[in-house]
Amino acid sequence: MAVGVDHVFYLVADLEAGRQRMETLGFIATPRGTHSENLGTQNYCFMFQTDYIELLAVRHSTPLNAPFRTFLEDGDGLATVALRTQDAPADHHSLKAAGVSMCDPVEYSRPVPSQPGISAGVARFTSAWVAASETPGCHMFLCQHHTPHLLWPPDPPRHSNGALGLAALYLIVPEPDAEGIARTYHRLLQPLQAAQGSADHPQPPPAPAPAPDTAPHPPSE
Length: 221
What we know:
With 221 residues, this protein is α+β, with helices and mostly antiparallel strands. The chain has one domain (5-192): 2,3-Dihydroxybiphenyl 1,2-Dioxygenase, domain 1, CATH 3.10.180. The protein is built from four helices and eight strands; from the N terminus they run βαβββαβαβββα. An eight-stranded mixed sheet has the order 2-3-4-1-5-8-7-6. 29% of the residues are buried. This is Glyoxalase-like domain-containing protein. Residues 192-221 are annotated as: Disordered.
């Protein structure tokens, strides 16, 4: 089951300018990441103890990043909420069974350079996007981390602005639409048993058990 917010991502047309703005606000960025060719995106992350902010930009056009390019036509902005799951295909099935329109699960990866507390490797994920019609004003997807130890360092950075994590998310809508939109989100989140009105942070995904020396390394995309 999905257990809360994993991260949010903020889409920008200029990734380096976006990083500089975030650093001016007192956040510490990870090294720049480059996603697989089918995603065609690159990012910086700003890690907390259990969640994070992702700054995302399009590197080259692909069918999978078409919604991002459409979003950016209206300028930079907070675009998407990722819900943490330990089993994206299972939660995808549960939501579809509840009548929620979903895209098929997608696997992707990105290289992670060596940094304090983290060895170089290939971070792997499975995501399952909720159809845009289900979430007015925001995109949502299920996010399963297969290699969380490559994202969360043992000691997360101490941001100079004092930020510790994502306490809550707010969607601002015209008052006449609020009740209907609330029902729409409840229809999505209720099958996942998402807690409402709680500021508790979910725990980060558990690190996988060490693989034997004979195990093959995941391919880099």
